[in-house]
Write a structure and sequence with these properties.
Elements lengths: L6 H9 L3 H8 L4 H8 L3 H12 L5 E8 L2 E9 L2 E7 L2 H4 L2 E6 L2 E5 L9 E6 L6 E7 L1 E8 L9 E8 L6 E6 L4 E4 L5 E7 L2 E6 L3 E6 L5 E6 L15 E7 L2 E7 L10 E8 L2 E7 L6 E3 L7 E3 L15 E5 L4 E6 L4 E9 L4 E5 L19 H28 L1
Parallel strand pairs: 20-22
Antiparallel strand pairs: 1-2, 1-25, 2-3, 4-5, 5-6, 6-7, 8-9, 9-10, 10-11, 12-13, 13-14, 14-15, 16-17, 17-18, 18-19, 20-21, 22-23, 23-24
Helix pairs in contact: 2-6, 3-4
Length: 398
């Protein structure tokens, strides 16, 4: 008779589960449970790599009704939207003004500007939530540098103070726990990339803020944004996109209409200087831009003609006609994404950060039933595992 397993031996036996058994288990779990499953040990994490990689393309953040709002996260396949995750009820009627680094930013609708209100940073995968109160700014777009649970967390907003109308960029540093007005003239888009804050202005300039080892501000003009014979307009329009170690600017006409001739500029670093050049290819990458979601770049994948949201060297955006459109860099033409009519919906992008596990154990429950839910989940997983083991053994005997 085999000796009983010790605590360490029991842990080792769970870690040595057959890969086929773990794949059977994963078939019965939700995406959120996939992430929790992958956090148990290295062998369990390796079993979820394939399933999670398939979900790395940006999800659609959609409110199918604008009055009242009703937020949900969707994936796309075969030209259809599939609901992946519902946003908790307490946020569904709130205004979302940011989708950055796997977190969503919610404010009341309409915000109580003169009394102050609470801003919620929500990780929809783990349920973690960070609150800012009292908040005295009107937010157009919010971005974060890393997980809000990290000690070097930075939070930037494009918006205005409740007592003013001028649009500016405000920065929150976790170490100082205060907001600072960067006093930028005519800001248009903001983004954190590798710890730096990039601000695109309507004057065809990029402001770069470096925070380590000390504050440093650089100004990058984009002279090639306009032709030699063109006059400088009072304002340009564009979105920032971070791709690996590079920064791109997607420039468009006054408003994103049905047909667009987009221009793409790449910011290249040459020592301490930056150089901006126009490019005619994304190097096989795919860009996703919208109003308040952070610009997203997806690297080369084995995309097929069936995958409407993974065409290489294309830029996806939502047009004024509320249709999802794809701009092809090679053909210099805009196409409507078939089967994904977004008419009447609010649509943005959300990129889940499965590799960010800093908040997996920091879920802030809304009531006292959190422990019961985790116990129930553990019981369900054990039952599924036992059923899969029995099925596997019977298959071997047959």
């Amino acid at each position: 008779m085999a000796p009983p397993l010790t605590s360490e031996g029991e842990k080792a036996s769970w870690a040595r589960l057959n890969m086929d058994v773990m794949e059977m288990i994963l078939e019965h779990l939700t995406i959120v449970d996939h992430v929790r499953f992958s956090n148990v040990c290295k062998s369990w994490r390796s079993a979820t790599i394939i399933s999670l990689r398939a979900l790395h393309a940006p999800w659609l953040l959609v409110s199918v009704d604008q009055s009242p709002l009703s937020w949900g996260l969707y994936t796309t396949s075969n030209g259809r939207r599939n609901l992946v995750l519902e946003i908790p009820k307490e946020f569904r009627s709130q205004y979302c003004c940011g989708s950055s680094k796997g977190w969503l930013i919610f404010v009341p609708k309409p915000p109580k500007r003169f009394r102050g209100y609470t801003v919620h940073l929500l990780n929809p995968i783990t349920g973690s939530m960070i609150n800012f109160y009292p908040f005295m700014h009107f937010i157009i777009k919010g971005v974060i540098s890393t997980s809000p649970l990290a000690p070097d967390f930075l939070f930037a907003i494009l918006g205005s103070h409740c007592m003013e109308e001028n649009i500016s960029v405000f920065l929150y540093e976790s170490g100082y726990q205060s907001w600072q007005d960067l006093k930028i003239d005519d800001p248009m888009d903001i983004m954190f990339h590798h710890g730096r804050l990039y601000v695109l202005t309507g004057k065809a300039k990029i402001m770069v803020y470096a925070f380590k080892p000390h504050w440093k501000v650089s100004i990058i003009p984009i002279p090639s944004l306009f032709g030699e014979e063109e006059h400088h307009p009072s304002s340009c329009n564009g979105r920032l996109v971070g791709s690996n170690d590079d920064i791109f600017v997607v420039s468009y006409d006054t408003k994103l209409g049905e047909q667009q001739q987009l221009k793409v500029f790449k910011v290249r670093e040459r020592g301490l200087r930056h150089h901006v050049v126009e490019v005619d290819s994304l190097g096989g990458h795919t860009f996703f831009i919208c109003s308040f979601s952070e610009g997203v770049s997806v690297s080369k994948t084995k995309s097929s003609s069936k995958s409407e949201l993974m065409k290489p060297d294309c830029i996806y955006y939502l047009s004024l006609e509320d249709n999802l459109r794809r701009y092809c860099m090679k053909r210099r033409h805009t196409f409507q994404v078939a089967g994904l009519d977004a008419s009447g919906d609010i649509l943005e992008w959300f990129t889940p950060r499965f590799e960010d596990r800093s908040s997996l154990m920091a879920v802030t429950p809304s009531n006292g039933s959190s422990h019961s839910r985790y116990l129930l989940l553990a019981i369900i997983i054990i039952i599924i595992m036992l059923a899969c083991v029995i099925r596997y053994v019977l298959g071997k005997l047959v």
